[in-house]
Amino acid sequence: MIRPLKIAPSILAADFARLGEEVKAIEAAGADFVHIDVMDGHFVPNISFGLPVIQSIRKHTKLPFDVHLMIAPADPYLKTFADAGADIITVHAEAGLHLDRSLQAIRALGKKAGVSLNPATPASVISHVLDRLDLILVMTVNPGFGGQSFIPAMVEKIAQIREMIRGRNIDIEADGGIGAANAGVVTRAGANVLVAGSAIFSSPDYAAAIKAIRSGALSVAA
Ligand code: DX5
Ligand code: ZN
Fold this sequence. Notes:
Blueprint: E1 2-3, E2 6-9, H1 19-28, E3 34-39, H2 51-58, E4 65-70, H3 78-84, E5 88-92, H4 99-108, E6 112-117, E7 135-139, H5 154-165, E8 171-175, H6 183-189, E9 193-196, H7 198-201, H8 206-216, E10 220-221
Helix pairs in contact: 5-6
Bound molecules: D-xylitol-5-phosphate and zinc ion.
């Protein structure tokens, strides 16, 4: 199964005062998803933004919204994120006791269901929920902040997950510290969706930054 390469700029690194324009700019620059990092100051040691921000940028782009929930609990808010315009809703495996139920709830809302794993969480925690997944987000930094350094041990986890999902239509997303220099190693291991915050938004030319990540990556066959 061929899983096409997708670039998902994280708006955590965008200029929040001009978020509508920033989202339009990444669409024009060739982004595939808008990656939206929601942080609650409880599950992760940082607070980012929530529902009103997502609602207000929804009208500025047609790109799918890839919503990464770093919140606990997540279940009470799934419907409101779906209503706000999320297309993919990703919950952390560590954020609740009932991952299977959370994933069922996301699909019941008509949205794509994702799970995210912190760096210390083994791939095996998702081995019994694969049929409920559209996307697996491998954190390649500890969640909470943009601009951190990529953790090389996550390459092996991506490769393990690629083996686990073989034959299934599930995207593997790498998130944290990704740029042109390491896009190749994570795609070779099996990632086909690359999140990049600072590597894109710190560049004066978003299209060039996205192109550089794409050329660092490879076309991935699972
Ligand atoms: C971290 C977030 C990431 C982050 C990536 O908790 O999940 O999406 O914004 O930012 P960079 O690409 O700067 O590491
Ligand atoms: Zn993220």
